[in-house]
Amino acid sequence: MTVESTAARSKQPRRSSSKRTSSPKKKAAAKKPAGDPGLVQLLTPEGERVEHPDYAIDLTADELRGLYRDMVLTRAFDAEGVTLQRQGELGLWPSLLGQEAAQVGSARAMRDDDYAFPTYREHGVAWVRGVPPENLLGMFRGVNNGGWDPNSNNFHLYTIVIGSQALHATGYAMGITKDGADSSVIAYFGDGASSQGDVAESFTFAAVYNAPVVFFCQNNQWAISEPTEKQSRVPLYRRADGFGFPGVRVDGNDVLACLAVTRAALEHTRSGQGPMLVEAYTYRMGAHTTSDDPTRYREDEERKGWEAKDPILRLRTYLENEGLADEDFFASLEEESTALGKRVREAIRTMENPDEMAMFENIYADGHALVDEERAAYAAYQASFAEEGN
Amino acid sequence: MAAEKMALAKAITESLRTSLEQDSKVLVMGEDVGKLGGVFRVTDGLQKDFGEDRVIDTPLAESGIVGTAIGLALRGYRPVVEIQFDGFVFPAYDQIVTQLAKMHARALGKIKLPVVIRIPYGGGIGAVEHHSESPEALFAHVAGLKCVSPSNASDAYWMMQQSIASDDPVIFFEPKRRYWDKGEVDKTAIPGPLHKARVAREGSDLTVVAYGPMVKTCMEAAAAAAEEGRSLEVIDLRSMSPIDFDTVQASVEKTGRLVVVHEAPVFYGSGAEIAARITERCFYHLEAPVLRVGGYHAPYPPARLEEEYLPGLDRILDSVDRALAY
Fold first, then answer.
1. What was the pLDDT predicted at B228?
2. Is A239 a catalytic residue?
3. pTM score, two decimals?
4. Coil, helix or strand for B291?
5. Which ipTM did the prediction report?
């Protein structure tokens, strides 16, 4: 597979161009994060580095450019998904626009042996885990209902029923503990899922068994048409309090903060302290899916306010202001984005419909007499047309 | 080694013990399965011998139990989950139907979900509501699941181990009113296939198909019918998904008549499926329509009425009479 995600490339040592960006540390000594004091932020919407007493981060220029690249390519792929739906190539596409930092930052905090349990919108996480982007399109095109081996990249199948995967993540984490391993798990879900019983039950199980799982809630403010106020009276990160484990709210549009906080959360779980909840405070810039019309329930003003907090723009400003990336970098990244779009378009246009017998396959691992009978009956039925034709 | 006589519940305990011994990936989990040994004592002594890490007392949350069992299976474990009573499975129904049943197919066969869900089911024990239901058709209807139910101690012993060894999710329905019935268990025997039906009594006039708790009732009905000179063949289905239609078909081709008996409501019950399939397979052999005996389209009644609701000897024999009258 030719997957060029930065994570895949990051296996090579990359100390050579290690221009450390420690200078902002000094610069920011006097600066406090703006806005909500409970919100962990390391890079302001204006692209300025700020410090947080609990969450430090020190990245090389190469690593910073890598985060930027992951976000840009994720956005490009996502935009291609929307376009392909509009062109009729996909039945549906759930856009992640606006959530690139939350996904790339959290996923980049993971080790290869960690495991991610996504919703259906984690295209950025998939990218970082090295899942070929084409594989994500199958279920939205209607050629399969999942379509990849979760163990290839430790990235579970997309889960459409809201919140179910939080329990799978917790069970998987319980298994890690039983194995005596120090891997960890991230359960991705959204603000809407925070109301689901399965999410509450996963908090209970994870707490009781001290399971190494990070509950990563992307609060993108909207569960289709329902604002977060319809889900909770308290900030979502505080839900953890009642279950007895820590919760933290991070600026979900700040890739540095998302990386730092998730790293710390994963370390927390690895060190045997049990689960942790991270609420990435972000915004769904697009519609819920291509079938949705947000003009029916929210004001454009709100969206415009969040445009100023764009996760990609702020990192670009920072890279430019600090001289950490030159024009060549941005230009070649643009070319790479275009090439990725082309690759995805070509993949979708050559994606073959499944063989009609595929619906009888993989229903059971050990087989089932009824499936065998129905498969044979269907094959005979199909064959009858061929005989008529002869 | 000679066969041992043991209660059906004890046979399941022994079976779980053997599986725990043979495969370190096997886990037992559920509410009160540890120290207490389960409300029916089916897991009695297992936590003491295998530790809290493998025999796990869970929080009181059925969806959580099945959902985390799925995660454990994805990590390579083989969880055997206990749902305390039939009527308590519905909080987990979403995880079973939406997640457990479909995941193997969704992953194009790349992952396996060897999860066994034990459900003590059925009535006849004078319990309060939600403790006497027979929801097997609700699970048999779902592709990706397998459903079995032993009727006796020997089958309970072997079918449990076979279910644990299966790489597919198995819903294991335990006939709770037969938990204390004793039977011979030969641990050195070689068991037949998990999903094969068994002819429990040979006969020539009419076939009776049953599974789980109703097999014993049907055997009693057959004995009573024999006194009246009627020869009933009783088939213990053992598996409700898949169903061994070949065994039923062979019997009906011989007898020409079929009565299906289960505790679950007749409407949309497994008897409907068996009647339809056997009618199609045996149309020219049938001397009478396939008749069904089961529960009514009513909520499971209060315990003082359950004897009226559940198929008993008389109701089964009444249907036998009606089938023979054609």
1. 95
2. no
3. 0.94
4. strand
5. 0.97
